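Example (one chain per record):
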Amino acid sequence: MERYQQAQELIQRFFLQNTEAAIAFQEELRAATQGRFPWEFESPPSPPSDVDVIPAPLCYGLQHDAFARRCAYTVNKTLRQILQRLLHASPSLSFLESWGLGRVTIAILEEWKRRRGDFVPINARLDLFLDLPTRRSWLVEENRIKGGLREIGDLLSFFFEGSTLCKKLTEAGFSLGFQYPYRARLYWFYQEYQRWKGSEALPKPTLFIWTHHAHNQREERCFQRLVELFPDRYPPFRIRIADQREGWFYKKGRLFYEEEPVDLVFRFEKLARIEEDYTLFQPLFEAYFERRILLDTPPLAEVADNKMIQVLLSDPDYLASLHLSAGERSFLSTLLPWSQLLTSIEEEAVLRDREGLVLKTMTGAGGSGTFLGRNLSPAFWEDAVKELRGKGLFQALMPPYIALFPLLDRGKFSLFPVKYCFDVFTGGRVSYDIEGISARGKVIFREADLYETINMGAKGYKQYRGKLLFPLLIY
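Predicted structure:
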């Protein structure tokens, strides 16, 4: 921890002395993230209004990095076993209705099971609670593009590499490690394409981003802009946003989008949104089932991303039935917040313990479907409990980790308390290792801020969007 503290002290001095270099750093950061890059959120920022990106790197050392890698390995290993058991061993997948999945989504998964049945790549998310040495934080293990965290994480790394602050840390003898979660993912996809096509692989293939026509397409534009801005940092893709529902058709073993042949598809579209018009997208899935395209974020993600997984892992008997070592089971029990399905039997206890519990839907993301009891009135909490009975879960509320960060407020840097979390993207496609790390936080202005969810979309009730942190490994 001594090296971590030394690095934090250097970073704080850089900002709190309010030198021209520190002000320039902030201005350059704002220009990089907002002037050329369409990542901005539509929801209003939390006060102070000029704090959008936290320019203070989140420093952590080799010990924490190894801990996060162990976490990623254990979670991926566990999820693969659960998915094998749930999807291969079960004669029918109709039980997924109780997980909140729609009729069309289940039908797609049934067809996947009949015609493919593969588990690579794996996409998953678990809400984990890390008790790191001398600190605590939330860790979300996920393998999907969500909330623009990958895109902005890559952009911040590119920016910081050439910054004055990076130079100061290097001159002071610190070894720095940078995270590029988005770049790692794209290179994996490009290599898979080359292996698949062999000598027929195009030097610059088109990567189709499948999304909804009515969506604001912020993440999709970020995706496209990154590759355009930094062609030397990414594989040679041509990016095309595919948002016209009527554009897909399958002919003679070949998928097309508006007359253009398709080999590579990144899925931003949620399967829940195609329940009513699945026939328009049936050509895309036919190509996927026939192995005529590579599809990132495949249908299996709808199960691996479901919060019912956490309910299963909170059951000691179920956890003991998995092929895990005693150390791995103990590790998961420590990490995972206790979760239980909300039924009429537990309803009275959940109503009574409002301030110590969190309610969640099975399929929510970005804070949607999340209710923190301590932030709600008893009447509103009771309504939420009744609404989610039989189709939601409740979890123990865990305290966040808080640190002081130098932030620019009205033209001057000052220290603000910030709660933060890590997002660890695992490389479950090839190994169980970490693909990249991003971080996000919230400035604490009042006591109520302590127990708001830390998300960038702020889709839940009475939520404000979070701030972006820069994850920097310092050794």
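Caption: The CA atoms of residues 404 and 417 lie 5 Å apart.
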